[in-house]
Amino acid sequence: GGGGGGGVPAERCSLNLPRSYDPQYKLNFSILDPAGSASDPHGLDRPEVSAAAARVGLRRERLKAVRLLFHMHEDFAQKKSLAALRKSAADRAALPVTRYAPQLLDHLRSGQVLLVVGATGCGKSTQVPRLLLSAGFGKVVCTQPRRLAAVSLARRVSLESHCRNGADVGHQVRFEGVRSGGTRLLFVTEGVLLRQLESDPDLSEWDAVLLDEVHERHSSTDLLLGLLRRLLPRRPSLRLVLMSATLDEDALSAFFGGAPVLHVPGRTHPIDVRYVTSDADAPSGRDARQAEAEACEAEGAGGGALQGGPHRMLKSRAKELLSAPLLLRVLGRIEAEYPAAERGDALVFVSGLEEIERLMEPLQAHAAASGKWIVLPLHASLPVEAQERVFDVPPQGVRKVVLATNVAETSVTIDGIRFVVDSGAVKEMSFDPHSRLEALLPCWVSRASAEQRKGRAGRTGPGTCFRLYAQAEFLSLRDYSLPEILRAPLASTVLHILALGVADARRFPYLSPPPAALLDDALATLHALGGTDSDGRLTALGRVLARLPVDHHHGKMLLLGVLLGRASLLLTVTAALAVASPLGRMPLDMATGQLAPEAAARGSLLSPLGDPFTLLCLFDGWMAERDSGRDARRWCRRRAVDEARLLELLKLRRQFASTLEALQLRARRPARGGEDGGGGGGGG
Questions:
Q1: What residue stretches are annotated with the Helicase C-terminal domain (predicted)?
Q2: Residue 238 to residues 221, 256, 421: CA-CA distances in angstroms?
């Protein structure tokens, strides 16, 4: 867009260009015409100019001015980019890991495995992959536990490497891949690398594998560790680097035959730790933790392994730690003690999406009243565009407060964070093989995680960490998080192990061997589904289930839908059950205290048959709006529906349909009723 008027009339345009553009693609400018007068600087009022403009559109002089404008803009953009690159180079040179590069490379030239224990802020996630690339270790793949981390690190390293994202450096996550035939460094999620191991057990594409944030110990992490230990003897040239700020180095080193450990210190910015509690007389310490565990059992959430031991958190205690009044009190202290002219944003760690949604409204009300804060959410299911808002710099005199799950605990660095507020809570999946119950339950974080959270405040300068629990409670925390493989259902993990050619899942090399009861339950589950035979070997059905990027129960449901001629309906339902619910919290009418009009608009979509059918109706209604050309986004807003979740559902549905096609599974026609009905929506 431009500042000048004139131009070719709309009816004479034949380039099929859009009539409107996103602001990021617009340039605002004014062109000074030397032929014009002071009152008419562009000379547009002269009759001969108007006539010429009508005949030829833009005059040559104006076209030259526009070309000059774009040259000037490109020159400005390049100078700005060069300044950013110079700053980036200076920042990289100051990172502690840079000083340890010679030792790191020497270890990898003399051995296959290296453990890098790098304190928060040392630069391991961005610099170690680049070091391997520049030192000639061939093609490098680096795993991250979350999509946001993989995407943001790829972009950051691309910038530092002076290359376009997707050229030498790229990323591959679910639904999104930016890479080329020349990509030599690829950031991926752990699930992507597991899928590659299924199709290429020797990982022949890669010369070096980096597993970042190993301390999180997801089931996929432990599965990768075991598979890579089996692979190393077959690939003597392969190099493996395990990285984290807080990993259990003794156990990992022993697991890989005494692999060396390289310690890298972090930046030494001081962090002031303050303990802020809502009840000064609240019990704390190990005795209180045991009392809390007994109270958790009394809450009736199941028994045994489901309780999570002494590290389960009472639901009432979790809500207390994440209360709006307590959080507003902390924000008030920041406002009172630190002048607004001093830059510094706040990062608040909560246990999950539900807590973020509950706290957003009171915090936004406070931000609107004070004019001192911008409130932003950050969680794994947030669209990429919304996630990137947390990296924006707020206006002078205003601070960001980011409400985040543990997605912000590792890898992702938000510049400008000076204050961390740690609730001490995290949600973990727990499973009891006796009652066959599983649940996502609030738990206390480990001490290692609490230290990781604290470190976010000292990445770029001195910071303050507010812990919303007593110091005695911090001292009683477990050292490390309990590995997921010891507390969650293992059927999907065992299915992948068997699909990778391991004859007996019980003999797989686990870093932390799971309880026999969990393994037995997993094998029994797969056998009941028809995925394994009586000897524990994969059946044809089991091999198909392993190929489907979905939970094994839902995979069996989808395959039954194909056999019964209801594939379209089941594609939608299966995808809907695999994503976070798009149904947001219903807002209240502040004047009446009653539900807002959105409740009535949503009511027609609610099914008495349960959530799966409600989601099916919701998806079909949304797709009907899209297909008719109407405003689907407005349709979602009127019903308090998150359209980004529906878009994710649509992508997942298409992925399932593509997988079925690759497996040459065709939907049968229904025995009665003609065409497959329901859940079509045009997504397959």
A1: 333-501
A2: 18, 14, 41
